[in-house]
């Protein structure tokens, strides 16, 4: 789960990491009032969306007066902010964070990230922080230093020192850096964070360290024991279709492809997505209708999948166990009728009540193709969606 920069900065403060003073605003007038309550002479207005790259996209504005803050907030609030992380449709800005402008001498990069392959937290630091860490990783990867943390989930001072001396900090700054990084690691461990990223970590004109940006991601499996983190979820963020799936009780995850899939069981769903890819097409979603799904849940899942405009064809792969094939067939027929389905549809049904399921589909008047095996089903739908594409 992602959180906003302003929420992340609240957590940083709790863990002793220095951040600029600021306040949240949802109207231009509120933004002005926040600026007036902070010492100037410079303020920064920052769009709060769950995506990085806001600076380059016009979502971060440096202002020299409360008037300018109000103006900047008016421009940013309500805008559809497009960054390299939002996709071309962008994200609507509902809130801005107004904070004290910092006099920046240098910008570093610092993050604590869960390395799943190594099964440990890893710290990454670079002297080349700021807005383009991806380019640093690509062009000069030797300028990103990493160190793995042991199972005690703490960073030893010598590890932090070596990272910060590597970034060219002075002795006094390294001292501040060690404390700051210990705070980040403590936060990551205590709150089940999979990412705590400070970019930039600024060295100020008078030589101190301050976190100017903060991006955090938390392991959803840990939210039960971190109710304070769970409470930070913003229902306006995230994929609207995935949210609908949650409300309807179906396991739906949106992907980048164009073949809609509906499957029962997470394992079979993963295998089906592999089969689609092997057949040369790309799945548009993961959808596990679940073992105990009703006709209504199947219909809900089907209609969520169809509301994705990228979907060009559908593959239904059901192995009826507890979930009976006739229930699936009836749910599909109901949903398809409701939306007047015109897309190519390939169905592979096996298992409990398969004959009844096939009869329902046959007699529905729906246009669809059947397949005897999973590989055949995947090849069929790949072929049909390719035709639609060209
Ligand atoms: P993003 O990473 O989404 O572009 P940042 O919070 O990193 O957003 O802001 C982009 C840039 O704006 C930073 O690299 C920094 O140069 C500048 N900036 C951000 N916050 C401040 C601040 N409080 N004072 C001065 N400059 C800032
Ligand atoms: Mg940033």
Describe the protein's architecture and organization:
Keywords: ATP-binding, Ligase, Magnesium, Metal-binding, Nucleotide-binding, Tricarboxylic acid cycle. With 390 residues, the protein is α+β, with helices and mostly antiparallel strands. The chain folds into 3 domains: 1-20 and 103-237, ATP-grasp fold, B domain (D-amino Acid Aminotransferase, Chain A, domain 1); 21-101, ATP-grasp fold, A domain (Dna Ligase, domain 1, 2-Layer Sandwich); 239-388, Rossmann fold (3-Layer(aba) Sandwich). The protein contains 13 helices and 18 strands. It has helices at 5-14, 28-37, 66-76, 133-139, 157-166, 171-191, 227-230, 240-248, 266-278, 295-306, 325-339, 354-363, 374-389, and strands spanning 22-25, 43-47, 60-63, 80-81, 91-92, 96-100, 104-115, 120-126, 145-148, 193-204, 209-211, 215-218, 251-254, 259-263, 285-288, 313-320, 345-351, 369-370. Residues 20, 44, 46, 52-55, 60, 99, 101-102, 104, 107, 130-131, 199-200, 212-213 line the site of adenosine-5'-diphosphate.
What is the name of the CATH topology of the largest domain? D-amino Acid Aminotransferase, Chain A, domain 1
Largest sheet: 6 strands, antiparallel
List the uncertain runs. none
- Radius of gyration (Å): 25 Å
- Average of the residue pLDDT scores: 93
Gross morphology is: elongated
Number of strands: 18
Q: Any idea what the CATH architecture of the largest domain is?
A: 2-Layer Sandwich
Highest CATH level, the class of the largest domain: Alpha Beta
User: How would you describe the oligomerization state of the chains in this entry?
Assistant: single chain
Distance between the termini: 38 Å
